[in-house]
Every structure is written in structure tokens, then in C-alpha cells.
Amino acid sequence: MDNWNAKTKLVHSGTKRSQFGELSEAMFLTQGFAYDTAEQAEARFIESGEDEYIYARYGNPTVRMFEERIAALEGAEDAFATASGMAAVSGTLFSMLRAGDHIVSAKALFGSCLFVVEDILQRWGIEVTFVDGTNLDEWRAAFKPNTKVAFLEALSNPTLEVIDIAGVSEIAHAAGATVVVDNVFATPVFQRSLELGADVVIYSATKHIDGQGRCLGGVVLGTKEFIRKTFEPFNKHTGPALSPFNAWVMLKGLETLALRCEAQAATCNLLVDGLAGHNKLKRLIYPFADGHPQQALAKQQMTAGGTVLSLDLHGGKDAAFKFINALNIITISNNLGDAKSLITHPTTTTHQRLSDEQRADLGITDGFVRISIGLEDGQDLLDDLKQALEKA
Asked: What is the structure's pLDDT at 1?
């Protein structure tokens, strides 16, 4: 399996068949598991072996297949699935930090991630320092003797800043800190953050891994030591377990993940070319696009620019709303990674709780929109965007 290419791993890795020899992965809808003897139950509670389970909150055969498949794709030693992407983020940080510790975080974060870092962690007595994620000098200056974690999004939401993971990892490791990367926007297809130096990688499986807007899920990947000794003890007792049904959906999503992401990225390139220089746009933001401040870094770290692009319209909120409301194909929704193209206005949705000053600092203007590109025909999407821009 180690010699298989990514697309083969996405179809076959982690598969376990029952005595019936089913071709599609089995869905084990059970809360508990039976033991042959009291001695076996005792032994399993001391240390569970491969394919030995205690309770669905601790682990499940269907969930384990999903964990093993995504770990094989990512090149990680182990993985632990969670009920949502935010359960993966919060569980990772909560399991690693305690009162008196210090975390350094990129300031460009998804709204819920920012709430966890800025509000909850500090409420628990954990010191937080925010930095410009693209500035290695700010990272370097922020670390302290009690710094335990460096946290960042590989591509920031929604401004698509690209962070030098290898550079941040070198700085963090020199200070004895662990690097945690939310790799959702970069996807496991286009970027291998562990190979760039990250220690822990997080995904909201709700996004590209499901890919069709059906289920919530998350997953945390890292060394076996981290997953089993740090992450698992916290999470199996606090309860954010992934349901077997959702794990089964995610397994089926992984089978087509590469095909979908590659098609979506190809459409992004078509749209970038087709909208370049449009007179209604102040900015067109895409990691591989000319003019992106980290274009060279993006091409160094990623094999494609991702499935999301952002537009900043002249005319502020009024123009943005007219543009969004004039779209015929692209659907208004704050999700991403879906087969359907989706658009959201971050100032009034995902980042509405930020102050005007915070949004301005991040480059999120009133005319800013984020578009997750789906699997529709690229020319149809370009035509839809152009006609809507004319009405903005």
C-alpha cells in the first residue's frame, strides 16, 4: 500500500471486509461491542488491539476504515475522526494546552476557529499571541519559553493567504512547539502539510471529503504517539465521536476526492483567466493567480491552487449583494467543497462577529465575496459570474 499513488489509496486504503466479503465498506451501526469472556473484557479495557472495540465513542470499525484511509493519503501514522471539523480543531487545542501555556496563531482564521483561540483558550488561562501568518519575522518574535503550539490555516479563510509551513515549522520546532495546520482549503489532494514540517493536520471532512453537502465530520492526523496518548484520551471522554453512518459517507467521498478537487481547481483556473481585469472587480484572489502576493510559495507547496476563489467588488456591500442575488447557478451558502458552487459574503456571515477594524486588517471588505467552485460546467459558471457582475 505504501507504494500506491494517491488515487489508488483513496479507493482501497483501510478497507476491512467481514465474513460476507462485501465490496462496499460495511456500516457498523452499533453503540457497544460484546466480549466472549469477562477476561477478554478486562484485557480490552487495559489495551485494545487491532480490530478490538469497546464502545462507539472510543472507536468503530467503519470509523476506523475512514481513519486509516485518510491517514494513508496524508502520509500520517494515525488519525482520529470527530463529529465535525470544529470538534477536530477544538479537541486538538484543548488536548494539548492547559492554563499557563502559550499559543501563537495566525490572525487570519475562520470565525469559529478564531472564537476558540481568542475567547475560549484565553478564558481557560491560556496566553494567545496573534501574528500575520505570512510574516516569518512575526512568528519568530512571538515564541516564548511556555509556547506549546503554533496554529494556522494553510490557506486562510476567506482571503486565501498562503503560509510558509516549512518556515513556521522550523521556527516552532526550534522553540519546542508543536505545529498544528488546518489544511481544509489546501485539501489533502493538493498539499501534504506533514511533509512540509507540520506535526498535526486537521480537516473538516464536512467540506471536500464529503463533497456533496450531506454530513458533518472531522479528522485529526499525526503521529501514533500524539493521536493515542494526547488526542484520544481527551476526545473519547468528552464525546465528539463521528457517527458510523457519517464515516461511511466520508469513505465513499474519499473515493472520488481527487477527481472532484482536480476538476474544481481546473474550473477555478478557467474563471481566473475569464475574470482577470474585469472593471467591476478591485481584486480577484486565487493562490495560483498572477498578482497573488504568495503565488510562488503556493506553487512551491501545492500541486494546484485549490477550489475556492474570492472577489472584491467596487461598490461595497450594495454591489456585493446585487451581484450575489443576480447569480443563477451559484447558490448562496456558507459551506464549501461541495459539488454545487457556493457563494457567501463573509462580512455579514462567517466573519460578522469581527470588528470593522479586524476585518479591515484581514482585508475583508464590504465588497468581498468567497466562492467555492463546484462541478458544474466551467463556461456556464463564467457566464453566470459575468452577467451577475454587470448587475452589480
From this structure: 75
